[in-house]
Amino acid sequence: MSRLRLGVNIDHVATVRNARGEGYPDPVRAAEVALAAGADGITAHLREDRRHISDADIDQLAVICRRRGRPLNFECAVTPEMEAIALAHRPHAACLVPERREEVTTEGGLNVLRGQNAIAPAVRRLAAAGIRVSLFIDADEAQVAAAKSVGAQVVELHTGAYCEAVRERRPQAEALLGNLRAAAARAAEFGLEVHAGHGIDYETVKPIAEIPEVAELNIGHFLIGEAIFIGLGPAIQRMRALMDEARASAAA
Ligand code: PXP
């Protein structure tokens, strides 16, 4: 089984900064700490309403990731404005996500089946610029097939429903994990790289990391919350250790 990469999403460092309109805490400093603590890459979501990450943050994150030779995963909605920003920076990767202004976070995956007329040309233009394009989708085999047909190289499976069911001790959790496993296997059959993210914590990381096709996890909110108590570096190191343990026990 391949080594599982960890992308650290630093959006919510910016959420705390923006709550007071100050310049701190700085998400770029958080990215530096995350990389030093063993993150394989940095993920940041530039939302249309700029509620957390700003354009200036993206400018600086692109510089530090390039300088350190680590991937920046630029998350954005499928809009002409976001596509232009991605093309201007040419990050290692772009993850296309659905976005509704009223939502608290990214609730549910991109409907690639319904949106393929807009998504396919955006994927084509980003990929032509050398950006690895990922689509954030629900664990649904029809969405996986649609992602393949629009030319994505990667699918990121939305783990939010599963993680929430585990936290609330709901019996559906097992079935939701089964959906993630099935979608990951289907994506791999199509030759897509499989990532997973949303809502992952120290408990849910294990079953998700055990899915053999998953190559990368993107984790943010829990790590930033945990950083308040134990520091960002130690929180990332603990998550990394749990990922490695899960991978080793799945391979045994
Ligand atoms: N992956 C994607 C595509 C996301 O939109 C998010 C949330 O911004 C994450 C991963 C990280 O989710 P969380 O912050 O809940 O760990």
What distinguishing features does this structure have?
single chain; 252 residues; alpha/beta; TIM Barrel; 8-stranded parallel barrel; 16% strand; globular; binds pyridoxine-5'-phosphate
Which spans of ≥5 residues are poorly predicted at pLDDT below 50?
none
Ions, cofactors and other bound molecules: pyridoxine-5'-phosphate
Helix content: 40-55%
Strand content: 15-25%
**C-alpha geometry:** globular
Strand order of the biggest β-sheet: 1-2-3-4-5-6-7-8
State the end-to-end distance: 10 Å
Overall pLDDT metric: 96
- The number of distinct structural domains comes to 1
Structural class: alpha/beta
H and E string: EHHEHEHEHEHEHHEHEHH
CATH topology: TIM Barrel
CATH architecture: Alpha-Beta Barrel
**SS field, number of helical segments:** 11
